[in-house]
């Protein structure tokens, strides 16, 4: 397992080229092409602004204003997380012709899916930054220094789950259908469309068991809320758990590696 993990560094050029191919293929044939990477998050933010400013004004605490921007701080990383897991769950089945090649490392495919999602997440950040400036939301540079740490924790967690799900889906095709429903539940169990403090005290205990709760709250504290970054102990705890998830996901993937080619 350790040997195979170390070999991934040798394939960094292949991973980079496959990520670029994935990004190009996503918008091939569209009029705006790669520009959709900027348009999609912009349209999403404008829709939320319309809904929670015109249609449903005053349904949230005043300290969460502008509420659409508060939601966007959580929805943008969630979109990366959920889309990566959904695509990774089917990536080995779709790329069966590649993993049947003896020298092709199958784990590259879910890794490429997650990294392509990371690029889209990064392309949405200028839209978020522009609206933060427009609404004059104060962002402390000291707190902003935690942002790369939050992204790194989410990346490790997403990679671990993507490796696990991609390998399991090859053997159990129901995983993808179950995953789409599980992600819907996971979304509402994460304080993205509401603040964690709004949940009843007994429910907050359950929400704190959700690792993405602390990622969402960390993004909100760093990007939206003025004040010290108080979520860092929980974020570091999630970071340690994410490393464990990555090792467990890669361990399962490595154990099932020899059966992947024949099952796809």
What does this structure look like?
This protein is an all-alpha fold and 264 residues long. It has one domain (2-55, 62-263). The chain is built from twelve helices and no strands. It has helices at residues 2-7, 12-26, 36-55, 67-94, 96-99, 108-134, 141-144, 147-171, 174-188, 201-207, 211-223, 232-263. The chain is globular, with a radius of gyration of 19 Å.
Name the shape in a single word: globular
Distance between the termini: 22 Å
Alpha carbon gyration radius? 19 Å
Major sheet description: none
Count of individual domains:
1
Structural class assignment:
mainly alpha
Oligomer classification: single chain
H/E order of the elements?
Answer: HHHHHHHHHHHH
Mean pLDDT over the residues: 85
What are the defining features of this structure?
264 residues, mainly alpha, 12 helices
Fold topology:
Blueprint: H1 2-7, H2 12-26, H3 36-55, H4 67-94, H5 96-99, H6 108-134, H7 141-144, H8 147-171, H9 174-188, H10 201-207, H11 211-223, H12 232-263
């Amino acid at each position: 397992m350790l040997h195979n993990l170390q070999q991934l560094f040798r394939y960094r050029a292949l991973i980079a080229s496959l990520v670029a191919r994935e990004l190009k293929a996503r918008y091939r044939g569209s009029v705006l092409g790669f520009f959709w990477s900027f348009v999609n998050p912009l349209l999403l933010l404008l829709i939320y602004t319309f809904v929670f400013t015109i249609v449903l004004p005053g349904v949230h605490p005043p300290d969460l204003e502008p509420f659409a921007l508060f939601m966007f701080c959580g929805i943008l990383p969630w979109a990366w997380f959920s889309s990566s897991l959904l695509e990774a769950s089917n990536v080995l089945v779709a790329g069966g012709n590649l993993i049947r090649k003896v020298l092709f490392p199958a784990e590259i495919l879910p890794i490429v899916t997650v990294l392509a999602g990371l690029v889209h997440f990064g392309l949405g950040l200028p839209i978020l930054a522009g609206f933060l400036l427009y609404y004059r939301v104060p962002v402390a540079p000291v707190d902003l220094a935690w942002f790369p740490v939050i992204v790194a924790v989410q990346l490790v967690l997403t990679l671990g789950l993507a490796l696990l799900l991609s390998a399991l889906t090859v053997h159990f095709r129901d995983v993808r259908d179950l995953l789409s429903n599980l992600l819907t539940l996971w979304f509402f169990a994460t304080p993205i469309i509401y603040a964690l403090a709004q949940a009843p005290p007994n429910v907050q205990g359950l929400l704190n068991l959700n690792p993405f709760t602390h990622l969402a709250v960390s993004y909100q504290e760093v990007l939206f809320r003025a004040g010290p970054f108080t979520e860092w102990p929980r974020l570091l705890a999630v970071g340690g758990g994410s490393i464990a998830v990555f090792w467990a996901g890669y361990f399962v993937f490595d154990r099932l590696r020899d059966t992947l080619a024949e099952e796809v």
